[in-house]
Amino acid sequence: xxxxxxxxxxxxxxxxxxxxxxxxxxxxxxxxxxxxxxxxxxxxxxxxxxxxxxxxxxxxxxxxxxxxxxxxxxxxxxxxxxxxxxxxxxxxxxxxxxxxxxxxxxxxxxxxxxxxxxxxxxxxxxxxxxxx
Length: 132
Known about the structure:
Blueprint: E1 5-10, H1 16-28, E2 38-44, E3 48-49, E4 53-54, E5 57-64, E6 67-73, H2 84-111, E7 128-131
Parallel strand pairs: 1-2
Antiparallel strand pairs: 2-5, 3-4, 5-6, 6-7
Helix pairs in contact: 1-2
């Protein structure tokens, strides 16, 4: 099954190569959890500072049954995000970790006989936030 994917580019022209990378990364997420409902990716170049270079911000909203996982990479945190491909790769790395953690908690809860709805709500991940 393919993940319903929405890609948005803001502040710069979209590129087929960058869209392709986003699609490949999104497809890999199904290896960790196969019931992903949707994936929204926003790649944005908010400011164009001539002295500081172009910086890119990436936000990924991943919807799974019962919750939404959100990961973002802010250009202010890392100078490496002058490259949109690096920003996308780092953001998908963060959402992948969040999805793995969420799926593991879900398996642990089921293994102990509790209902999946009894997962802890509103826990924050390393690189983003989980929204119940």
